[in-house]
Write the structure tokens for this entry.
Amino acid sequence: MGTGWGMTNDARGGFLTVAEVAVQLRVSTMTVYRLIRSEDLTAARIGRSYRLRQADIDAFLDKRFTRAG
């Protein structure tokens, strides 16, 4: 509610660091960087680091689900 620095990740749209995304996807940080470089994952560059939106990570995963059988 409202805007400002005291908001939670969910209220700001779920911005995550590369390390947080790596933990969530259970891959290495290098894999996340590769996905960003290949444009499979969308990220905002802020200074020398990247921030990723939770919605973009969810969309990335949704595209990769397959049906068994």
